[in-house]
Amino acid sequence: SPLTSRRDKPRILAVANQKGGVGKTTTAINLGTALAAVGERVLIIDLDPQGNASTGLGLGRAERKVTTYDVLLDGASLESAECVTAVPRLSIAPAGQDLAGAEIELIEVENRHYCLDKAIKDFAKARPDITYIMIDCPPSLSLLTINAMAAADAVVIPLQCEFFALEGLSQILRTIDKVKQRINTRLELQGIILTMYDGRNNLSQQVEADVREHMGDKVYRTAIPRNVRISEAPSHGKPALLYDLKCAGSQAYIKLASEVIQRERAA
Ligand code: ADP
Ligand code: MG
Prior knowledge:
- The protein is globular and about 50 Å long.
- The longest helix has 19 residues, at about 250-265.
- It has helices spanning about 25-35, 50-55, 70-75, 80, 100-105, 115-125, 145-150, 165-180, 200-215, 230, 240-245, 250-265; strands at about 10-15, 40-45, 85, 90-95, 130-135, 155-160, 190-195.
- It has about 270 residues and is α/β, with parallel strands linked by helices.
- It is about 45% helix and about 15% strand.
- It comes from Aquisalinus luteolus.
């Protein structure tokens, strides 16, 4: 289809923010689903020990035979971890609780920044049909997130419009710069997503104005509204787009996906 990307390599996006609860996992799942819906072939890599992306896509603990821990630290291939989901063209490499120990175990590993990068390069050779890989990062800027940034073409930052948002933003931007200088020269900022946005709230509006002033076009035009259907969907093991396609949150993620695709085509 002319809609889908034709490249020899998948585009690799890390969904990152050191703060928890800002919408990283929700974005990985729903942006991934929206990309799959327009014909992209998407793999989500769950790099958070909490495993919320895996649970949110309906994968129980017992179904997670090979996990991202095994990929990072035991030489398992990403293909062997890959699980299908209820969404056509969307698969996931799940996380298990053992990933919590990976942070510390990685310190001892030679090439510790590049464990995920190597696994993805092997995966891309074996699976040339995959057009997007989305990495759901943990709420820290530790070795797991550095592994994601080392492997990625670009970072997508979900940002909640609250009081300390800009301080948190400058911290992750500094980390992206450092990774770009020392570990992965092709790393870019794809964009900043305003999440759980409430247009009636003055603080939301003020923070939005500040972020747009500082970051300009790096902020996607589409903001994701705070929407109860989005928060209900994971407990049904489904992306919001399958749970309630018509809700404002799902519609926003569909719009966001078209902005992401436009930027990826320009890249
Ligand atoms: P993170 O991965 O950054 O920790 P999550 O994506 O898990 O954040 O989101 C944190 C919580 O907020 C979850 O309970 C999620 O369902 C909820 N949430 C995320 N985005 C929205 C939204 N747009 N509207 C309402 N609730 C949301
Ligand atoms: Mg998360």
